[in-house]
Write a structure and sequence with these properties.
With 61 residues, the chain is mainly beta. The protein has no helices and three strands. Strand 1 (16-26) and strand 2 form a beta hairpin.
């Protein structure tokens, strides 16, 4: 996911990509759900530019 309008604050690179990490969320004693965290980070130095939650509806009541 290269985005030339974005620039790394640590090294100045313009090459970014995304990766995911699963975040389990305990909604009640018996209910377990979750969502992916999506990281956008610099391909050159690894500096994380943003983190977002893929499925925010699990947090809404």
């Amino acid at each position: 996911m290269e985005n030339s309008s974005k620039k790394c604050i640590k090294c100045g690179s313009t090459e970014f990509t995304e990766a995911t990490d699963y975040m389990p969320v305990k909604l009640s004693k018996m209910s377990l759900s979750g969502s992916n965290k999506i990281y956008t980070f610099c391909l050159d130095c690894g500096e994380v530019d943003s983190i977002r939650i893929e499925n925010t509806t699990i947090f809404k009541k």
